[in-house]
Amino acid sequence: MSAFRKLSILCLLGLAFATPLMAQPIQPFTTAALKAAQTAGKSVLVDAYASWCPTCRKQAPTIDAMAKDPAFDKLLILRLDYDNQTAEKRALGITTQSTLIAFNGSKETGRSVGITDPDQIKALAKSAMP
């Protein structure tokens, strides 16, 4: 193997390890995604979001930041469309937008409505993490 090729491989490996770990991107809520994550024992945060909701818009930057934060790399964030997922929100007992529900596997570890403080939102999400 040539010296150039060895150097190229080492550089690529270095880039791979230098890239920070990131949480999973926010995904649209589906019952199937929630059930699969719960069955696998994963940490999940369900965000009941409505675009017209000022509280939801205040929560969004914190939740979006958690999706990029390595501290939350094991957290699956599912964004439920409050206006269009009526059966899903009924099944989860969601009665108002801006509801956040944390799960560790199938166990609900916390639920909040209307909190906008970033530290409280992060604490709720961390309650789902082992």
Word description of this protein:
This protein has helices at residues 3-18, 31-39, 54-66, 86-91, 118-126; strands at 27-28, 43-49, 75-81, 99-104, 107-113. With 130 residues, the chain is an alpha/beta fold. It has one domain: 3-Layer(aba) Sandwich (Glutaredoxin). It has a five-stranded mixed beta sheet with strand order 1-3-2-4-5, with helices on both faces. Strand 4 and strand 5 form a beta hairpin. The protein is globular, with a radius of gyration of 18 Å. It starts with a helix and ends with a helix. The model is unreliable at 4-21 (pLDDT under 50). This is Thioredoxin family protein. Residues 1-23 form the signal peptide. It comes from Dyella flava.
Query: How do the SSEs run, as a string of H and E?
Result: HEHEHEHEEH
The residue-averaged pLDDT reads 88
CATH class membership: Alpha Beta
CATH level 4 superfamily: Glutaredoxin
Largest sheet: spatial strand order: 1-3-2-4-5
The number of helical elements comes to 5
Domain Thioredoxin: 20-130
Protein name: Thioredoxin family protein
Keywords: Signal
Organism: Dyella flava
